[in-house]
Description:
By secondary structure, this protein is an alpha+beta fold.
Amino acid sequence: MSEEGKERSLAVALQYEKGSRDAPRVVAKGRGIVAERIVELAKENDVIIEANTVLAQALSGIEIDDSIPIELYEAVAIVIGYVLRTSNKP
């Protein structure tokens, strides 16, 4: 993703149910204005945002509502771990 104040070129949103055995799914993706709106909605709903350009690029090729491929499990698991640790802070 891009620096603060500049247009965000890409955003990908994942859905994961804590404790679920199902792989995370891509629930939204877009570039430019659509990417900005995805980020705005995430912020409005207190969704933690992880800026990872390489992972976003890799996830952008996945169709909406499709699960992430096994090749991206490790990278996404690191992000999910970060999100879970951040959301559990007092």
